[in-house]
Amino acid sequence: MTRLIMVSLTVLGIFFLSGCLNNSPSFVVRNDLTKRDITPKVTADGKYNIYLITMDQISEYWQNIDAGCKAAVDNIGDINYYWIAPSKNDVTKQRQSIEQAMNAGADAILLSAASATGLDGILNNVTDAGIKLIYVDSDATHNATATILTDNELAGKIAAETMKQALSKAGITHGRIGIGVSSSKVKNAILRDRGFREAFRGTRFEVLPTVDYDSERKNIERYVSANRDCVAFFGGNEQVTQIFGEQVQAEGISPIIVGFDASDYTLSMVQQGVIYATLQQKPEDMGYEGVSIAVSALKGEYRNIGAEIYTKVNVITKDKT
């Protein structure tokens, strides 16, 4: 498979790997949590029908991908664009969303896959029907026209190096560290977990078994309650990071937390010192590039079939927001 690797880290991210520093960019406020229409109408106006299908409708992160898609639609024109998703992360329901898009006349689907392997059957149907498949944020094993995402294993290592710095500043040289991810079925979660663990290998810290959020906040709350002695927690996505922050406050403990994504709420906890740092991805870039590639592929102009395009990641701390 052709691999187009565009690994673009901020200098702060590289600092933990090679010793530099940079300012982080501004972030975008999105507060619309309205349910998305899951039964859009087939149109006969000659425009391309492009669908964004995310894991759920809960996270502000998905809204930012949607914003990037809409920006591309406005810029390119002649596109009927729809965002559809299950109300919460569920592989079966996401499969149904894909079927709905196919039945509604999709020409291209931008998919953040809820499972690395659990969608293979329906994705075979997608590509067999000539629909262009582009992964955004999280891919699956089925081949796609292109994949646009964070280099998640490297991002996991950057999160670990960020945490090491915070532990060193606090004078903590050993202890237990907890990890929570969206779901161990999701490829980006698997890679972030792997990168994080690899960075702590050979240290005096014990990284505990990973807990899955699976759209159930009680999973994370119980994990924190059962591991109150942890010196740190790593949140592998927006929801897990936020619940870690809320639960340590409820427990009256102050471990170091490093997480993912940069919603307003997460950033407020960074400013309060509840969360030491969060890794800001580039969801708008993923959405914009995804729509652009979809149109290029539909026109027969896209040549980098199977490309993996990595967007950059920034580390945000209280001093660097």
Describe this structure as you would to a colleague.
It is a single chain. With 321 residues, this protein is an alpha/beta fold. The chain has two domains: 11-150 and 282-311, Rossmann fold, CATH 3.40.50.2300; 152-280, Rossmann fold. It has helices spanning 11-18, 60-76, 91-103, 120-128, 152-169, 187-200, 217-226, 238-251, 264-272, 283-298, and strands spanning 48-53, 79-84, 108-111, 132-136, 146-150, 175-181, 205-207, 211-212, 232-235, 256-260, 277-280, 307-311, 314-317. Strands 6, 7, 8, 9, 10, 11 and 13 form a seven-stranded mixed sheet that branches. A six-stranded parallel sheet has the order 2-1-3-4-5-12, sandwiched between helices. It starts with 10 loop residues before the first helix and ends with a strand.
List keywords for this structure.
six-stranded parallel beta sheet; alpha/beta; seven-stranded mixed beta sheet; 10 helices; 321 residues; Rossmann fold
Overall, the morphology is: elongated
Number of strands: 13
Note the run of SSEs as H and E. HEHEHEHEEHEHEEHEHEHEHEE
Q: The CATH topology of the largest domain, please?
A: Rossmann fold
- Note the main sheet: 7 strands, mixed
Count of discrete alpha- or pi-helical segments spanning 4 or more residues: 10
Amount of beta strand: 15-25%
CATH superfamily assignment of the largest domain? Response regulator
Question: In terms of per-residue confidence, which ranges show pLDDT below 50 for 5 or more consecutive residues?
Answer: 1-42
| Amino-to-carboxy terminus distance | 38 Å
Q: Helix coverage percent of residues? A: 25-40%
Structural class, from secondary structure content?
A: alpha/beta
The CATH architecture term of the largest domain is: 3-Layer(aba) Sandwich
* CATH class type of the largest domain: Alpha Beta
Mean pLDDT: 88
Q: How many structurally independent domains? A: 2
Cα-atom radius of gyration: 20 Å
